[in-house]
Amino acid sequence: MDLGLAGKNVIVTAGSGGLGFYIAKAYAEEGASVTVSARNPGRLAEAVDRIRTETGGIIHSVVADMTDADAVGALIDQVEDQHGSIDVLVSNSGGASTAPFVEMTDDLWRDAAETKIIPQIRAARLVFRKMVARGVGGRIIFMAGTHGRQPHAHAITAGYCNAALQNVNKALSEDGGPHNILSNVINPGPFETERMVYLAQEKARDDDISLDQAIAELTSETVLKRYGKPEELANVAVFLGSARASYITGATFDIDGGQVKTI
């Protein structure tokens, strides 16, 4: 199936590792011109070199810390100036730190928002403006997580951030509709990433169990009884950014092996 992504200009923020890396790689495989941002120059360079080697695709990099408003603005301006109008934004960010509820200070709650909610909204706002000005539509994809729909005490900040992003996405789809700017949310469940290692460690600490037990419990929440492979999520992210997803907006996609039990 031709997804119509060849030559499209795509930004994947926080894409030097984890799910962001695999999403950027998948877009490159489809022939898009992909710019990956991250705050660690060395890690970003390694990621871009790997994607270029493995796909032969068009891949660029811009060092940018998503928590720095000026850096995000410069990233988006640079991409447009050097590579043309932006067709797809995958608004990704780092995960929020967590702790048991009684240990969560006001500063930790604020830090969670500054780490995950505000950076993704900021990037979407700046790209949305450019898409409206261009007048031919576009795609915005927020990366949230299933804890926004199925909360866990050991990931309480993740849940609050993810729920906020889902709410913003639904509202943004109304603004974007008249301009054919489609926005959607992907909620990753448990995947084989560094983030899941961290959450499993936190669960093991909070529940006073071994790391292996924590991993077993996390995977047992899924219908498929395993962690997902990052490529399995990247396939969805690429589809949502494509011409084939032209009637999908304001939607939330739980890519979680059946973890979320609500409907």
- Report the sheet with the most strands, covering strand number, pairing sense and barrel closure: 7 strands, parallel
Q: Given the structure, what is the number of helices?
A: 8
Strand arrangement within the widest β-sheet reads 3-2-1-4-5-6-7
Overall pLDDT: 94
CATH topology: Rossmann fold
Rg, please? 18 Å
Structural class: alpha/beta
Q: CATH homologous superfamily - what is it?
A: NAD(P)-binding Rossmann-like Domain
In CATH, what is the class? Answer: Alpha Beta
**Which H/E pattern describes the elements?**
EHEHEHEHEHEHHHE
% residues in beta strands: 5-15%
Number of strands: 7
Residue windows where pLDDT falls under 50 for at least 5 positions = none
Q: Assign the CATH architecture.
A: 3-Layer(aba) Sandwich
Approximate shape: globular
Walkthrough of the structure:
The chain has a single domain, classed as NAD(P)-binding Rossmann-like Domain (Rossmann fold, 3-Layer(aba) Sandwich), CATH 3.40.50. Helices cover 48% and strands 14% of the residues. By secondary structure, it is an alpha/beta fold. The two termini are 30 Å apart. The protein is built from eight helices and seven strands. It has a seven-stranded parallel beta sheet, sandwiched between helices. Helix 1 runs parallel beside helix 2, helix 1 crosses helix 8 and helix 4 runs parallel beside helix 5.
